[in-house]
C-alpha cells in the first residue's frame, strides 16, 4: 500500500507540477505583446538603417557637389589666368573700332564673363602721345567703350564692366617710334 500511496503522491505531484508549468507560461496577450514589441524593435532598426543609408547618400552627393564646385572653380581660375595674359587689344592710329584679329580674344573674355557673372572687369583705354591730352582721354574712352559694347552685345552684364580712360598718361612703351606708339594705342581688360 505504501507503494500505491507513493505512486498516488507522485501522480498528484506530477499533475500539480504540470499545472504549475502550464499556468506559469505566457498568456496569449503576453505572446502578442512580445510579438508587437519585437516587430516595433525590428521596424525601428530598419528605420535607423534606412536613415543611415539616406544620410550616407546625402553625404556622398554633397561631397560630389563640393568636388565638382572645386573642379569648376579651378577650371575658371585656369581660364582666367589664360585670359589675363591675353588682355590687350591694339587699335590703329586715331581709331576706336576693334580690329577683326582681336574679335576671337574678346569673344573668349565675353564667354568667361557670361559664365562667371560675379566677375568684374575694368576696361582701360589708352592712346599714344600724338594729339592733345584731352583728345587722347576722349579717344581712350571711345576705345574702352568699343570693347564694352562688344561685351554687352555678347551678353555680358553692364554691371560687370567699368571703363576708364588714361589717354596718353600710362604708356606701355616709352619712345616716339612707330612701334612704341602702336603699343600704346590699346585697350586693356583688367580683372578685379
Automatic annotation (TrEMBL):
Coiled-coil stretches: 32-86
Localisation per UniProt entry: Cell outer membrane
Coarse class of the protein's main subcellular location: membrane
Membrane association type: Lipid-anchor
GO biological process, one term: cell division
Signal peptide residue numbers: 1-21
Segments forming domain OmpA-like: 78-192
Entry's transmembrane regions: none
Sorted UniProt keywords: Cell cycle, Cell division, Cell outer membrane, Coiled coil, Lipoprotein, Membrane, Palmitate, Signal
Pfam families membership: OmpA
A cellular-component GO term for this protein: cell outer membrane
PANTHER family found in the cross-reference section: LIPOPROTEIN YIAD-RELATED, STATOR ELEMENT OF FLAGELLAR MOTOR COMPLEX
Function: Part of the Tol-Pal system, which plays a role in outer membrane invagination during cell division and is important for maintaining outer membrane integrity.
Subunit text: The Tol-Pal system is composed of five core proteins: the inner membrane proteins TolA, TolQ and TolR, the periplasmic protein TolB and the outer membrane protein Pal. They form a network linking the inner and outer membranes and the peptidoglycan layer.
Family the UniProt entry places it in: Belongs to the Pal lipoprotein family.
Protein name: Peptidoglycan-associated lipoprotein
Record organism: Glaciecola punicea ACAM 611
Amino acid at each position: 500500500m505504501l507503494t500505491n500511496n507513493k505512486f498516488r503522491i507522485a501522480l498528484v505531484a506530477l499533475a500539480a507540477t504540470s499545472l504549475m508549468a502550464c499556468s506559469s507560461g505566457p498568456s496569449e496577450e503576453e505572446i502578442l505583446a512580445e510579438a508587437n514589441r519585437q516587430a516595433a524593435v525590428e521596424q525601428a532598426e530598419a528605420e535607423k538603417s534606412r536613415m543611415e543609408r539616406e544620410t550616407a547618400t546625402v553625404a556622398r552627393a554633397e561631397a560630389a557637389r563640393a568636388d565638382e564646385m572645386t573642379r569648376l572653380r579651378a577650371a575658371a581660375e585656369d581660364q582666367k589666368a589664360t585670359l589675363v595674359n591675353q588682355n590687350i587689344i591694339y587699335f590703329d592710329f586715331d581709331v576706336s573700332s576693334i580690329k577683326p584679329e582681336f574679335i576671337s580674344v574678346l569673344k573668349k573674355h565675353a564667354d568667361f564673363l557670361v559664365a562667371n557673372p560675379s566677375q568684374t572687369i575694368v576696361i582701360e583705354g589708352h592712346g599714344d602721345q600724338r594729339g592733345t591730352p584731352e583728345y587722347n582721354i576722349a579717344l581712350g574712352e571711345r576705345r574702352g567703350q568699343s570693347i564694352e559694347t562688344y561685351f554687352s552685345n555678347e551678353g555680358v552684364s553692364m554691371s560687370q564692366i567699368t571703363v576708364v580712360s588714361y589717354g596718353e598718361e600710362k604708356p606701355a612703351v616709352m619712345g616716339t617710334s612707330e612701334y612704341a606708339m602702336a603699343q600704346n594705342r590699346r585697350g586693356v581688360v583688367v580683372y578685379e
